[in-house]
Amino acid sequence: MNALVVIFCCALAAQCILAENFVQHDDQPFRSTRNVQFDWQLTKRIFEVQKSNVVISPFSVKILLTLLYEATGDAADLSITQTKKELRTVLDPSEDLNATRNMYRSLLDSALTESVDFDLKIATKFFVDEFIDVISKYQIISDHYYNATVDKVPFSNPKKAADIINNWVSRNTNGRINELVSADGLEGAVITLVNAIYFKGLWTYPFPENGPRRAFYTARKQLEADYMEQNGQFYYDDSNILNAQLLRLPYRGGKFAMYFLLPRTSSSVNDVLSRINSSSLHQALWYMDETDVNVTIPKFRFDFSEELNQPLQDIGIKEVFSQNASLPLLARGKGTRDQVRVSRVFQKAGIAVNEKGSEAYAATEIQLVNKFGGDGTQVFNANRPFLFFIEDEHSGTLLFAGKVEVPKA
């Protein structure tokens, strides 16, 4: 049976740099409205069912689902399929599709701009079988707005196809993800879409090295963890809206920041998650103000992988997985036109946070088949489970989100 596989990958990494080499930037949090309804719906669903550490890239999922939305047909078509309706409802693109396209075009143009302060790469690739032609109009839109280009691979030789795809993923994640697909997983595949993200960032204000080793408190036990500490001026709020402390740590360059959400001692990660939506999060982040904060955060590093079929169906994307899926613009070739459905969505991810910055990586696969303190200083002491996310503060794009149940340095 033929199959179409969509894979997206993302990675984040950091390097050490001496504190005296840093240039201070007058950066501020993103203040405009964030279009993150889908991002947090998916994130919350995964977090709620996972009891362990989690890190995902909502953006990596979102950009490829948006490409699938593009494949459902011209926005001017009078006949709106259930596939298009569900993707549009959950992804919430602009009523003017060109606005959504231009948003991605602007974000990708920004990502491709070289900077001495950070390194952000976003790449998208269609890997198609040798008998497949991606429909010209769709290919032009994908290339122009989403930087999605096409390569032919021999899916009839799954091992060779897997090697080609994995090598591309490895190159575009700076070696953080070396094996995303297997030969067995590509049996019958005819198309694979891959998005790779790599971000290397350094704290604007790095932490002193060799921090203390202290207790970290989980619901069941107390354990020891390596912490990093510093005093400084950061955007912070003790939010009644989310029942959590919010802290923003900016990356050098004034474009990206990592946010930490620490439940109050009377609250929990699940309680905070239940309060998060696009409106409440925007309001809570708006209330953040720059103040003196004593920051204590554990160093952590972990990997995570998860099949996303069920979470996506839980939030309303269902028909694209069914025999009724309609993606007519996606491909032209024997047995493929209007005959594909999503069979698998999968993501691998990881993150490491230390004194100088952070490192994260993720990969997602969507497979489609034929039908188929006291002195005014605030204290932020993350000595218990917490949430975090990394944001592009020029656009409000949610690049990574995660939760730490147990820090593993």
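The above is record 1. Record 2 follows with the same two-line structure.
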Amino acid sequence: MTNNDFEMSSDQDSEEELLELYAAGKLKPGLNIPVDPKKEFINNIGGLNDALKSFQSSLPWSERLDIVAETAPLAPELSMELTEQQQFLKAGKIDEVALNDFKRETMFHRHAQTAVMTGIELLHKHNIPTHRPEDYFAEMFKSDEHMQKVRHALLQRKVELEQTEKVRRIRQEKKLAKEKRVAAVQEKHKQKRDLNENIKKFRKGLRNDLDFLETDGSKKNQKQENSKEKKNLTRSQHKRKGKDAKYGFGGKKRGMKGNTKESTFGGSMKSKGKNRGSINKKKRMSMKNK
């Protein structure tokens, strides 16, 4: 017989022995399997009252702060809500456990309400303040060193965000400037191509005018300069410029009303001499005829 066969036969014998013992009633809980002892709950009301009297007689109420209060009357809104919950229970919308929970919470609320009212009266009776004074200084839970670290971290984060925004803005400006330069170069090449095409057309006789030599670029530059000058002028300068355009803008005043060669003869001296000679000749001819 091998070792495996021996082990299998011994296991079978042990199982059969356990079955025989269990059938005879000799196997009971606790002999082979540990069982937790049964807990006994004792509501020792007398002991609790004795413990309460022990510290009630030795300490004042300001040190104990114990309150025995009855249940406050049910508020109208809670009564209405309780009635609705009962209707929901009858309709089958909620179960009884939910209604019991609501009643329990309502009872806690009513007990707390009575205890608060009684406690405030007792506090006033023992000259214990119930409101925080205006100059009350509460020590912070965090230390000053910790708050300084938090402040330093916040400032550092703010600086990092500002630097990131600045770098992003600089990149955007560089990108826009590059696009403007590329657009300006492309416009310049386009104007050059158009000029070469117009020159070729003029040489071939397809075009007779030379208007293409007056490029629109000079006109645009002049308009841009004028618009820049207008933008740079203040309100008073705009007003002065308008008056100068309407009434003149100063200059030489002395001798402005004196007669000149043009105002006297209405033209050049040569033409006036010729006219004068012709007038004198006509006069002489008329006198001879007389």
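Confidence is low (pLDDT under 50) at residues 268-274.
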